[in-house]
Amino acid sequence: MRPVDIEALTVPGIPALRGDLLLTAVSRPDLKTNSYRGGLRRVDLDGGGEGPWTHGTKDSAPVISPDGRWVAFLRAGEGSGRQAKPQVHVIAAVGGDAKRITDLPLGAGAPVWAPDSRRITFVARVPEPGRYGTENADGETPEPSEEAPRHITNLFYRVDDVGFLNDRPQRLFVVDAVAALDEAEPAELTPLTDDRVDVEHPSWTADGESVLFVAPRDWAAEDTVRTDVYAVPAEGGEPRLLIRTRGTAAKPVTAPDGSILFYGTEFPGQEEIARNTGLWRAPWPPGDEPSAARRLTAVETVDCDIAAGPPVVLGDEALVVVRTRGAAELRAVPLDGELAELESLRCLAGELAAVKSFVVDGSRIAAVIGTPESSGDVVLLSDEKPSVLTDYSKALRDKGIRPLDELNTTAPDGYPVHGWVVRPEGEGPHPVVLMIHGGPFAPYEWKVFDEAQVLADAGYAVILGNPRGSAGYGESHGRSIIHGLGTVDADDLLALLDEALKLSDLDSDRVGVMGGSYGGFMTSWLAAHHGGRFRAAWSERAVNAWDSFVGSSDIGWFFADGYVGEDLEERRKRSPLYYAGKIDIPFMVAHSEQDWRCPLEQAQRMYVALRQNGVAAEFLLFPGEGHELTRSGQPRHRVQRFDAVLEWWGRHL
Length: 653
Known about the structure:
Rossmann fold, 12 helices, alpha+beta, single chain
């Protein structure tokens, strides 16, 4: 895979299934337009392939009404301004022209059908008048630099790749979609929630009378990362607290018996970092007081992936995706259980693979699954043999995909370490790049990873590992680096490197290290403390100094305390910047100008310190990008970054 081959990375979204209609939205980078293109595709359930179902180039989030008559989805137009924002559209399931039913200044979120197949709920950001291209009280539309000052009174006021929050809160809406089909223009909609908080994850109660959603604890009366489940009448009224969680809530849904299922974490005291996400159940209807929820899955062994979609009831079980040892498996959780361990949960798909999303219709299940040979395909699951219905990775396979070879070893203290090596073609010996993921509470997975494939195509062996601190190996594994960054996680990575270097086709004299975010932190840390192991380093979007990260990062106000603690000396002790004087290998600092997760000053401070110390340091700075450059940045920037990575390692390895 070459850098420009990111155009072959066609990624399917959450599928929609009802009767014989199976839809998914696909997206791929397009270098010509420097954007992401795609649309809704219909997948033949009998294995006859797939093809376009709509003709928009930026259609996404399809969902079929319960009665099977309608499909709602998001469509964004070309250009800029309101017409380029995603708006809810509805089209007959038998085909025809799509009708736009919303016209919101900043667009709409994914639609969710009511049980009556008429109404749709969604969330959308609503700007203050005079901001983000809207008119102010004087009928003027100020330029961004001319907008009034933002008056900020809370800590959670901005998010990377989203922007400022308080002046465009995310609010809840309901629209009569069927009635809107007869209107010439979309009607003006009134939000069901006020402008004091962001709400998310809407769904309907079984009777269609209310909408469930998630909002900050106590309606954000105090700064908090804790969230609860609320409900509001679909016709309007005061939101009601339904479930007060032990930490956070996500993706609440109503089961057929009326009970509420949701994903949640629990925080003992103020320990709010690196917690496994479990499946919870609460009774319905609630009493006068908020319901007490019961955790259905074990705290230590089950970590649900909320990005795969909400839990779905199938018989007397709920289906969820669970992260485990680099896999993302579709598992079945008994509804009458409590604290069920991972090994007791029936596995439907995802062994040595990654289930990215799924949908259920009756007894049928369709899932999007990535594998070591695929970035994601639509698969129809059955008791006999899963049927792979699409081949979105064919173009990528034709260009060459190198296999994931599993590695297992032990750290100096005897702790097991798990990872992979991706090796190029040929006998070698190949130069080696140790690549470190972000998070740190995240995993590398059993699926095609473009970063590793591009390097392998260029002749490098790439080592990928999930050291202590990663997700999917138990909550205690993820929390073992709390107040200990750069200790056992570094030991694990170096042990994995040593294990890989036992392979005869890897060159132990030509080794580099690279990573982004937490991986950038660890790259800087290893360069300072174990620099003799490496010829050069590439540190990207890194945390380098916890003292300034606390006040400059969008999550710094709780993340730094969680991982490092409040003690100023400990923050200094755990900051790579303060060991910059120990770094003497060539060092690339790569960053994005609009990164609010690990702000630009983190890169600037490290680069200046290295240059002042006489290190051969370089600085690669991407304009207009945020923390997610390598995953969702402008396609041309992604290619330019790959070219720079290859040039760097070509020079030093």
